[in-house]
Amino acid sequence: RLERALAGGGQNAIFVLSGAGKGERAVVRDVQYHKVRGDVVHVDFLRINPEEEISASVPLTTVGSPVGVTVSGGALQHSVTHIDMTCVAAEMPSQVEIDITDLEIGDSIHVSDLLETESRITTDAGVTIVSVLQPRLTVEEEEEAAAEALAEAEGLPLEGEEGAEAPAEGAEGDEASAEGGDGE
After folding, report:
1. What are the start-end ranges of the E strands in 48-165?
2. Would you kindly state where each structural domain of the chain is located, as residue ranges?
3. Looking at the domain that runs over 51-156, which CATH code has it been given?
4. What is the per-residue pLDDT across 114-166, written as a single tens digit (0 to 9) for each?
5. How many Å apart are CA 16 and CA 11, to the nearest integer?
6. Residue 41 neighbours by CB distance under 10 Å
7. In sequence order, what are the residues at sequence separation of 6 or more whose Cβ sits closer than 8 angstroms to the Cβ of residue 157?
8. What architecture is the 1-48 domain classified under in CATH?
């Protein structure tokens, strides 16, 4: 049950711990997991007053698929997975959701963008949370781009363009003679 409660509410969920006939409110301070099985071995709780402010690290979750990734082939980069918040314990969110659907290549979301709706964030406003990066070229594409740039710099026509030279006649005959043919 504890594992389900931790998964559902995260470490910022308020638990009511009963002991000595009295319920105490607490948040999870630390969780230790078994190295092999992955189940919970030990949990440290921190007693809180639900009306007092606390500081906590809150996980960020992204919603949607960016247009820059699905349409333009960009790559989504997550720079930060948690943000720090300070608020009354009873109002601490278990996570902060970010809609990334409208992000194009070159767009990013910063903590400052979240401050418009979430004033309790204490993480530096300039921190980048997610961004959509330009897709990287493959080795072939990089070689083609380099060849095009070199040809343009030298003023030569590109392969397949008008004025591009055909292979030298001797080159074809050399191939045939190397294969043991008679050049035809």
Report:
1. 53-63, 75-78, 82-88, 96-99, 108-110, 128-133
2. 1-48, 51-156
3. 2.170.120.20
4. 887 777 899 999 999 999 998 876 666 667 777 777 777 676 565 555 555 55
5. 14
6. 11
7. 151, 163, 164
8. Beta Barrel (2.40)
